[in-house]
Each structure stands twice: as structure tokens, then as C-alpha cells.
Specification:
29% strand; single chain; five-stranded mixed β-barrel; transmembrane; 35% helix; 147 residues
């Protein structure tokens, strides 16, 4: 085989390996990336059904319902314009309270119930996840714009 053909084979093999590596990395990222949606976006149908994503906002006052064993909890996450019903099984963070900021990760069922696999509560009085704060501001602007 001529040296030129050998070089070309090595170049093609290298391109194939780089292509394979890029494909594997993109598939891994796709499986682990979770997008954030506000309750208004979920209500508008922008969030995927059956796929994992995050919803953030405030825990609606008076919406927390606990099971007898205390491990199953249902509550509403709101951006003050719309709300999403959330169901979670497990221990909640100590800072989880009504009227406080929260981000939940999980999947939305066809019934509209969001089954959470993770609940993240704010860690001090001044912090709210940037996505949740932005969603609350946008919902407040949209609410004011209505007649």
C-alpha cells in the first residue's frame, strides 16, 4: 500500500473515532440534561410529557397535603399566574414551607400531575433559583397586563 493511502486510512479512522466520541458525549448529555419550566409554561403545554424536567416557583399557601405516614406529599407550585400539582414521596428538605421558593425535578403525567423525584428548597431568605425568580417576574408582568 502506498504511503498516501496509509495516511488517508489513518485520517479516516481518526475522523470515525472522533465522530463516535462526539456521538457518545451528546447522548450522555441528552440523557442527563434537565430543562427548567415555570408553571405558566407547563400550563401552556410547552413542557414535555413523560420526559424529566424541572418546575420552579413558590409553594402555594394551604396546598400541602401529607399522607398518614408523612412520606407522601402533594402540593402546588405556583408562579402566581398558574399552578402545577406536585406529588412527591420521600423526605422533604427542612426549609420546605408554604410561600417559599422551590424547584422540583420529575415528570409530568398525562393527568397534569407532576411526579417529583427531587425537591430543592431555597437555602436562605435572600436566595431563589434564577430561573424561578425570572419566571415569577414574567408571570407578574403578564398578570398586570391582563385587563
Amino acid at each position: 500500500m502506498k504511503p498516501r493511502k496509509k495516511r488517508m486510512m489513518w485520517v479516516l479512522a481518526g475522523v470515525a473515532l472522533v465522530g463516535l466520541a462526539v456521538t457518545l458525549v451528546l447522548r450522555a448529555l441528552d440523557a442527563n440534561v434537565m430543562f427548567f419550566y415555570s408553571p405558566s409554561q407547563v400550563h401552556a403545554g410547552e413542557a414535555p410529557k413523560g420526559a424529566a424536567f424541572r418546575v420552579g416557583g413558590l409553594v402555594e399557601r394551604g396546598s400541602i397535603q401529607r399522607s398518614a405516614d408523612g412520606l407522601q406529599v402533594q402540593f402546588q407550585v405556583t408562579d402566581e399566574a398558574q399552578r402545577v400539582a406536585v406529588q412527591y414521596k420521600g423526605l422533604l428538605p427542612d426549609l420546605f414551607k408554604e410561600g417559599k421558593g422551590v424547584v422540583v425535578a420529575g415528570k409530568l403525567h398525562d393527568s397534569g400531575l407532576f411526579e417529583a423525584t427531587e425537591v430543592l428548597a431555597k437555602h436562605d431568605e435572600n436566595y431563589m433559583p434564577p430561573e424561578a425568580a425570572k419566571a415569577l417576574q414574567e408571570a407578574a408582568r403578564a398578570k398586570k397586563a391582563l385587563p
